[in-house]
Amino acid sequence: QQPVQSPQAVILREGEDAVINCSSSKALYSVHWYRQKHGEAPVFLMILLKGGEQKGHDKISASFNEKKQQSSLYLTASQLSYSGTYFCGTEYNYGQNFVFGPGTRLSVLP
Amino acid sequence: DGGITQSPKYLFRKEGQNVTLSCEQNLNHDAMYWYRQDPGQGLRLIYYSQIVNDFQKGDIAEGYSVSREKKESFPLTVTSAQKNPTAFYLCASSIESQASGYNEQFFGPGTRLTVL
Predict the structure, then answer these.
(1) Comparing C-alpha atoms, which of B48, B49, B45, B22 is closest to residue B113?
(2) Candidates 1.10.10.10, 1.20.1050.10, 2.30.29.220, 2.60.40.10; CATH matching A4-109
(3) Taking CB atoms and an 8 Å cut-off, how many pairs form between chains A and B?
């Protein structure tokens, strides 16, 4: 089952914040976040394992709420380079294949 | 430099022809994957292989075939049976890490296939 991502698309001005959510109907072992620029391969951002941990990477951080079976990606003080499509990949058990969400298109304008 | 290479970047074929997409990795990863991406959509798994000489169907395997004769290589053949082959194809690899507790997938640059 494909996870649900919201919103589908978001437009920001440089310096604004955004939150992207990834929800699953099944219990999750891990959530992986990727960013993809148009015509390029997805680039790994971070992984969150069940346990409700939160991770950060420059001004991009994420949380994983095991009870809600949901992960959220936080982009703070967005930069032009943040533009792209963000995908979450969910792993239901260790070693199982990822199921990717449909993506959230983020556009950061000057 | 370690990484995943896919060739060619762009590929054009006539309808009814089989075409093989190359994927090579020098990361010493055990698992390799093929995904298909259509405009505005996420990644859908075509085939995957956990070890040499073994592979499994993903969610949309019909009309595709693969082989895994070497750890480094996982070519994908798009056959004439695939009804809508025009898409962006991504190859990925990953390594199981029981110490760290997660798999991380590394993606190649992709091949954009257009069937005329």
Answers:
(1) B22
(2) 2.60.40.10
(3) 55
